[in-house]
Design brief:
Strand content: 15-25%
Radius of gyration: 24 Å
Strand order of the largest sheet: 9-14-13-15-16-18-17
Helix content: 25-40%
Distance between the termini: 57 Å
Largest sheet: 7 strands, mixed
Number of strands: 18
Structural class: alpha/beta
């Protein structure tokens, strides 16, 4: 058994059974090892950003570690942006990135780079395997780190991959115990939540599933406001879901929303911060004098902290938790708008759907109408690096093959990871891609105004708009093996959603607004 085989068997023994991949020559022994272990599902993405974004989506929806295979420094660098998003979302990912054999490094071959530096800039955990006997143990350590919600990267030198794998595979240990606030801190925060002007801001595992239920019970028992972040990695919406008040993206709207709060207790979430700095404005949106109580950090024991907090405030299961009530909007006719997209989706999505959101400027019109539809999970862009939607959808569909996935993306963002359409077609994934075609990076027009800059002139418009030539998403989809259609009316959009439902595998709708 060589080092590569020991690593694959270590991954399988540790329940890592999916590897999103874009391999190269230095990874050929690892590829061969994957080939002899059919229990490992290997999914090819044609660009490394698709690899890492898919691993992120898989981790969010499965709760399990996702594996990636990347090629040297340039390959890892291509996947860096979506690893940034994954890191912000606390997704556990194990990257296996190949490197030259140790004796070859001194020759500075064309693809050689500062791989350790590139890897270290985004990974919580990184090690280099220099011979085969150490590969399995390092792989197990990487998986343990990823189980703690970290980005773990194992640099697998080619000579370690083909070298003797030593004693063979190792089963990764369970996650290390996570920190929980002490009883006095819990008690103080419990008292805080009962005071006027208090809010509980939660994130991570506290905004879907059992965690959301606990958070809702705490809010109902104490009377505090229950808040969720705008860029939630995964959050439950739809009929019967716990009703959160979500923060806003625009700095002014967030400041207005938070102006009357006196104290905010944080569990599994960072303090609110404006996405960017703006001239003459503060960096954080809370009002002066508002106390921020960071009870539980994102990488601490979020569910355990919530349970302790629930016990401290006297939750007994009889609380009248505030929930989202069902409201399906009536369909309309006429030119397609963001609101029309929202109405169509609200009427079309089934219970248990997964909605991946990177609609950007169209979001304000779409999601309020979808929020009250059938129960669903929503994945958002956690780190702000655009191009996350399409690969996140691949990962979500891999993790939950029995649940339909809807990927709602602006046209500019979707172009970053266009190649994901091919992977969706190859893997026959049940994904409906809705490309909101507004002919540009519209968010940049808003940010230009927010920075106090003049109205865009010729050069600014040339950098923001994608109108000359216009993108043809139906042709682009067809070229990647995905059927699709272009619509510009609300009634045509509803018909296209019905066609997508009737189509086996992926379907693309170019929604022109």
């Amino acid at each position: 058994m060589n080092g590569a085989e020991a690593l694959v068997e270590t991954m399988l023994a540790s329940d890592v059974r999916v590897c999103f991949a874009n391999p190269g020559t230095s990874e050929m022994h690892f590829v061969a090892a994957l080939d002899t272990h059919p229990d490992m599902r290997c999914i090819l993405c044609l660009f490394e950003g698709g690899v890492t974004g898919a691993a992120d989506g898989y981790a969010r929806m499965s709760g399990n570690v996702a594996g990636t295979l990347l090629h040297l420094g340039p390959g890892f660098g291509n996947g860096w942006a979506n690893l940034h998003n994954a890191r912000k979302g606390q997704s556990g990912i194990v990257n296996v990135v190949g490197d030259h054999a140790g004796y070859h490094l001194k020759h500075d071959a064309p693809l050689q780079s500062d791989l350790d530096g590139v890897v270290g800039s985004i990974s919580h955990w990184t090690r280099r395997a220099t011979d085969g006997s150490m590969v399995a143990r390092l792989g197990a350590d990487a998986i343990q780190a990823a189980r703690n919600g970290q980005i773990a990267t194992l640099i697998l030198q080619a000579d370690a991959a083909w070298g003797d794998g030593g004693s063979g595979p190792v089963t990764a240990p369970p996650p290390t115990p996570k920190h929980r606030p002490d009883a006095d801190r819990i008690a103080a925060s419990a008292k805080t939540l009962e005071e006027p002007g208090a809010a509980l801001l939660v994130g991570g595992a506290a905004i879907f599933g059992p965690g959301a239920e606990l958070a809702g019970q705490i809010a109902a028992r104490t009377g505090c406001r229950l808040l969720a972040p705008f860029f939630a990695p995964r959050i439950g919406f739809g009929t019967g879901a716990v009703a959160f008040e979500t923060l806003y993206y625009p700095a002014e709207m967030n400041a207005e929303f938070l102006k009357d709060f006196k104290r905010i207790v944080l569990v599994g979430e960072s303090p609110p911060v404006n996405f960017f700095a703006y001239p003459g404005k503060p960096s954080t949106p809370e009002p002066p004098g508002c106390a921020i109580d960071r009870l539980c950090y994102e990488d601490w024991d979020v569910l355990g902290t919530l349970q302790a907090l629930a016990d401290a405030v006297g939750v007994d299961g009889t609380e009248a938790v505030s929930r989202i009530e069902n409201s399906i909007p009536d369909s309309e006719t006429g030119p397609l708008t963001p609101e029309g997209i929202g109405r169509g989706l609200a009427r079309a999505i089934p219970e248990g759907a997964i909605m991946v959101n990177e609609a950007v400027t169209a979001s304000a019109g779409i999601w309020p109408l979808v929020n009250t539809a059938a129960p669903h999970d929503r994945l958002n862009n956690t780190g702000g690096s655009i191009g996350e939607c399409l690969p996140n959808a691949l990962g979500a569909a891999t993790a939950c093959p029995d649940r339909p996935v809807f990927a709602i993306s602006g046209d500019g963002s979707a172009m970053y990871q266009l190649q994901c359409l091919w992977t969706a077609a190859r893997e026959r994934m049940d994904i409906t891609f809705v490309i909101v075609a507004n002919k540009g990076y519209q968010i940049l027009h808003l940010e230009l105004a927010a920075q106090g800059a003049p109205k865009p002139g010729r050069n600014a418009r040339a950098m923001f708009d994608i109108e000359d030539p216009l993108l043809d998403w139906v042709s682009l989809a067809k070229g990647h093996g995905v059927p699709g259609e272009r619509v510009d009316t609300e009634e045509a959009f509803a018909a296209a959603l019905a066609a997508a439902k009737a189509t086996e595998g992926p379907y693309l709708i170019e929604a022109v607004i």
